[in-house]
Amino acid sequence: MKRLLLLVVLAALVRYNACAQKVYIGCPEHVNTKPHAGFLDKQAVDLVISDSRVIPADSKTECQGTDVKQALKNLLQSDFPSCTITLLTDTGKASNPKGIMIRLAITAYQATRAKSEWTGSVNYHVMIIDDRNGKARKVSEDISNDTTRPYLFGYKSAKTCLFTSFDKSNQDLVAFIESSLKE
Is 8 domain-assigned? Predict the structure, then answer.
């Protein structure tokens, strides 16, 4: 009887762990870029990246928020090589008050497993303040991309979902910046 009870408890624990929601956060390995040479030529751009995610304690985390912030700065610098991008702290003041400031808030960057599939989610809130002409113009956008794949290959599927969503969100981010700052 004790063995049967132990077997039932063990089976329940295995089932719970198999069905429990899991969260994976991986470091961006590479960033796909397509340089827009000449865009924002010799302009100074202040960039503020904040991370407003809540990361569960039991998530599988391979990198910190600073790694994601650095990957985003590198992406923007690679995409817009003609301008000078200065990364400021969250409370940093603009280095050039009559210039461009991009505020980028990371609201989601994770892959979540529910039931039998992984969903990679990468969401940003972007606000651009363009004061080049002496008239501060503010535009903002929420960028969100989710990718879903079956759980078949475990964390490899999670990584694929996360990085696919990351690439899509970054493409949307670059397109928004480009369309917002065209003169």
Answer: no
